[in-house]
Amino acid sequence: MLSKSLRIACAGGAAALALTATACSSSSSGGGSGGKTLKVAYQRFGNEIHVDAHMQKVKAQFEAAHPGITVKLDPINVSENDYYTKIDLMMGSSSTAPDVVYEDTFLINSDIQAGYLTPLDSYLSTWADWSQFPDTAKAAARGLDGKTYGVPMGTDTRALYYNKDLLTKAGIQVPWQPKSWADVLTAAKAIKANDPGVIPLNVYSGKPDGEGSTMQGFEMLLYGTQDTLYDGSSKKWVAPSKGFSDSLQFLKDAYSGGLTVPPQQELDPNIGNVVGGQLLPQSKLAIDLDGSWVTSTWTATGAKPWPDWSTALGEAAMPTQDGGGKGTTSMSGGWTLSVTAKSKNKDLAAQFIELALNKDNSASYDDADGQIAVRNDVASDPAYQNSNPTTSFFTGLVPVTNYRPAYAEYPKVSDAIQVATEAVITGQASPADAMKTYTETLKGIVGSGNVAAGSS
Amino acid sequence: MAIGEDLAGAVGRVTAPRRARAARATRHLPLAPALIMLFLFFLGPVLWSVYSSFTNAALTGDGAQNPQWVGLENFRRLFSDPNVTNGIWLTVVFVLGSAVIGQNLLGLGIALLMRGRNRWLRGTVGAIVVSAWVLPEVVSAFIWYAFLGQDGTLNQVTKALGIGSQDWLYSSPMLAVIIANTWRGTAFSMLVYNAALDDVPTDVQEAAELDGATGWRRLWSVVLPLIRPSIVTNLMLITLQTLSVFTLIYVMTAGGPGFASSTLPVLMYQQAFKFSEVGYGTAISLLLLAIGAVFSFVYVRVLKPEA
Fold first, then answer.
1. Burial A140-176 (b: 16+ CB within 10 A, else e)
2. What is the pLDDT of residues A350-378, one digit of tens each?
3. Residue A129, C-beta contacts closer than 8 angstroms, at least 6 positions apart
4. B258 vs A81, A92, A426: nearest CB
5. A16, A269, A412 ranked by CB distance to B33: nearest
6. What single DSSP character describes residue A152?
7. Is the dihedral of CA B98, B102, B104, B110 positive or negative?
8. Could you report the per-residue pLDDT of B183-204, keeping only the tens digit for each?
9. Is A159 in contact with A330 (CB distance < 8 Å)?
10. What is residue A282's three-state secondary structure?
């Protein structure tokens, strides 16, 4: 009896130990027949399928040029917030870190500071194509140490899409170009009065849509006021400010007036896919404040082809609060490809990036994904300019566009903004209270000494 | 089991001291792998989370590269954070509503009603209740999400009947998750009370009946005191289980709208994995541990299971 149970226990223990030993010592390198494996991690979620298509293509080119090397693609199928969490967790350990990672410029400064990424200067200095990237694009992935940590794939701008038919029916003249926030709300009210079954306006808000809420929603409003998130001259974060509370007030007016997607639907993490994949194509939504890439959902290679989109929809620049300043405003971000700090194949990873973002590949990707080209040679190429009916419109917003504060604290600030917008659209807090909470949170993130009030 | 018997036998045997020592040593040998595993995979993470609650460890930014020891900073922040205060309150409401009242009373009620019924009825009712319990948590969460959602089953039914629609997931998220958790967990309490009631001697009950005690009186003065140990055990188990419910709430409401259903486990997740503040998240997890301890203490003191 004893001997039998002893044997079983020992065998079990030995097996378990053997398991943990292999689990702890399994390495990420290796792969096919003695060749190396290069791991590439990126996001593939809902309608966002073009990065995946691009990577498939580059994988084939890279493997043909480097016999014996296998490129292992890791398309991470989660929403934006979860994607950031996932890659941060992956990059934290050498056994899980990919070699090449698709990084949002939203997070890159924070990840540089976390030590997750490799400076690419030594590779870029010998890459002839690097001179094709303008300085603003190069700065997108520059750390505080002045080194470059990523190569931009493209950039984007944001504006209003509107359904010509729905606006015309509501008695609004198209082409439509609102001159102020009030114009936008007036149009939304007219649409609601004409057809209560249509959602007049979509402005992304709340935590579930993550940075999408902050940038496509709140910042498109805030950067049309006298205030910003960060004051470059005084080197201080701005809170509280009139612009901040006015932006929240706009959301409150729109949501409480029933002019938007109902909050319970807005707070679904899939809202971005629903807007681009269903509401706009089905003419259920009249005006959408969104990014330049949305049209890529409807192209022949997109997730939800919609041949008539370019005749059904018009585009209008987002007006500033009361038409002041430059009159219109936009926000720009974009994604880069970077090499992780824990990668064991840094040279190969850099070569992969140089191939993925050479002239032809950059052009085909920007074209497919509705990105604005960052390479000069692509931007000036007539083929690219005529690739999409909206390209010239969205490229034309670059003179009025704004960039997010490129600091490591920004992602946390963005979270605080999402919390504020969610509190306002659900009616849980007034704009004033939500701004007070934001100011306190902000002081906790960047330190009280680095916060100063804006206009009042 | 076999090892247990051997142990008991060995303790009972009288042997020469030296042989006993050697035997004792070899007897514990088979336990070594299990102990090592326990330390590695159970105690390790626990100790790590206690340690990291005193640091500013994060998933990205400075705190990821070199986490700093920040002493009690996380705890200072915790007690001045309105979301945490709100989270404590919601957690207590969730435990009282879905465990202490919901699962516990409903489970006791069903067990009482099933007593003395024929086997076929007992089997059927038991199977239905238990089937909700054997579903994986994420599945039952999704069932309730699909049932209560905007275009969900319930609204389709009310629409067909011509009554207005509901949006509990949005307007009263706590009620929605409490109902779902009660539905899911009642079976456990029912099984515990079924077993406990089977042990109540029938002659005591018959004696009470002869003395003229009504049904309610018999329940209150005879049955409940007799099954008190089971009540305490059950309350303790379901409380600790319910305190840590995460999946159900996360799938149904994701802690929203706003923070309206962010109980401590959900808040902890949001802080650690959405807002990347691992150190602060683990501090919240220690708070959760403390709340569990308080509940357990109250049960043990008030209900005195050993009395």
1. bbbbeeebbbbbbbbbbbbbbbbbbebbeebebeeeb
2. 999 999 999 999 999 999 998 999 999 99
3. A354, A357, A358, A359, A375
4. A426
5. A16
6. E
7. negative
8. 999 999 999 999 999 888 888 8
9. yes
10. coil
